[in-house]
Amino acid sequence: MAKIKLNGDVIANIPAAQVQAFLAEHDGNGLTVEYTALELRSHVREEIQQNAGDLHSLLGTASDAGGLVLVELLRLAAALAEADKTAQVRASAKRLKTLGAPFLEKIDNGEVQLPYMVKGEAAVMDDIATRGVAVSEALRAIADD
User: Fewer Cβ within 10 Å of end Cβ, the chain: N or C?
Assistant: First the structure.
C-alpha cells in the first residue's frame, strides 16, 4: 500500500494502482507519496516499459550490445595475437576506437547515460553475482538429476 502524506503525516493508505487517480482527485496539493520497495520497483519497471520499450525491445537491444561487444572483442584479440610491434597493437585497437568514439563522446558530455551508471557499479556487480549464482545453482540441480 502506498502512503499518502500531507505535511509529513499519513492521511491515506491506498493501493499503488490508485495513487494517480487519488492525486488527480485531490489536485496533489502538498501531497507526497511513499511507496514500499516492491511498489517502487514495479513503478520503475512500468516507467521503463513506457519510456524505453517493452521487455522484448530491451532484450533485443541487450542482445545487439552483447553481439557487438563479442565480435569486436574477438577481432581485437585476433589482431593483438598477431601483433609484434607497438604500432601493430595500436592499429589493432583503431577500429574499436573509431567505432566507440561517437558513443563515448555522448557519454562524456552527458547526452547518454547507461543504467549501470545510475545504479552504481558495485550494485550492478552484486546483481550480476547474485543472479549468476542463482542460475548456476538451478543448472547444477538439473545436471545432478
Answer: C
